[in-house]
Amino acid sequence: MRPTAPRYALVLALAAAALGLSGCGEESGYETEPPAPSEPTISPASVEELCGILDGQKGTWKALGPPVARVAFTGAMRLWTVQDTVANAALSYNRDIVDIVTVRTCPVVRDHMLTVLAIPDLRAALGGF
């Protein structure tokens, strides 16, 4: 006796259901949440370079006045982060990193920059980031 079309449909439906349910277990092999990103670490040499840039420009930026100096600061930060992709990633991850690393490495230069730029912290002058 030959099976009929409805019988094939029933067998196919049962097989599909069994295969579909087999993938519903606890351990599917796929991550359900992406891993948390970690903050990139800027090298000490790169931070020293940043401090040197800021120290070298403080007189010029003071003469320009705070509004123009803030634009120049943003340009200097852009140049620094283009040359150091880790610094760029760190700045994208945490905009406060500029203040954190300059407080540790060159606090006097940082304080002078805050006065020249007329800002409460360097993060405030990061236009365009």
Short summary of the structure?
By secondary structure, the chain is an all-alpha fold.
Main sheet record:
none
Please write the string of helix (H) and strand (E) elements.
Answer: HHHHHH
Low-confidence stretches: none
The average pLDDT is: 84
Can you tell me about this structure?
The chain is an all-alpha fold. Helices cover 67% and strands 0% of the residues. It has six helices and no strands. The chain is rod-shaped, with a radius of gyration of 29 Å.
SSE diagram, text form:
Elements: H1 5-22, H2 44-64, H3 66-83, H4 85-93, H5 97-105, H6 107-117
Task: Summarize this structure as a short list of keywords or feature phrases.
129 residues; mainly alpha; rod-shaped
